[in-house]
């Protein structure tokens, strides 16, 4: 079925999927410390993985489910229908967004005013097409990366322009915070603090303290400190007493 089975974490179908992942998918990082990827310390994982099939959802499937499940059973062994609603490593990009609307990523690239390149070295993954297409269309790009690998890739494939494109070669948290501060948007982060990881919260705390009154430091810093306390307690559930990495120094 080329449609989402559900889109809400509260949906019983989603809850069933979570349960199936826990009982059927092996933790490939089980030999690592918790902060390096291990998740099975919270729930025992199986020694080997078992494909999650539509049949496993039983009567939770929509009306078209039984037909799709029957078709799935008749396919070649190793072909299955159930996938998470994310772009997995080097898979094709979404043709629909999370709201179910059609997405034309190349069309949106052509219409954009500025492209931000984060979290990729542009080493040949499918998603890199967007960055290279933007360059070929003459769109300005900002590259956030500690290395020059993305820039070198752009130079080789999509006409990097020193007069148009920018490389912010520093920790991502620091670069983004500098931009938010310069645009007067730093205070808006208060609404997003519950969604920010501990390492980024610590970087934000360090940044606000360094800026002082310029960033309305006292009120924002109090909110950040409260968020850090909450996140530390939450992380303790997942990681025990393993220390968190310290943020990069400003």
From TrEMBL:
Q: Which InterPro entries match?
A: DHS-like_NAD/FAD-binding_dom (IPR029035)
Q: What is this protein called?
A: Uncharacterized protein
**Where does this protein come from, organism-wise?**
Chrysochromulina tobinii
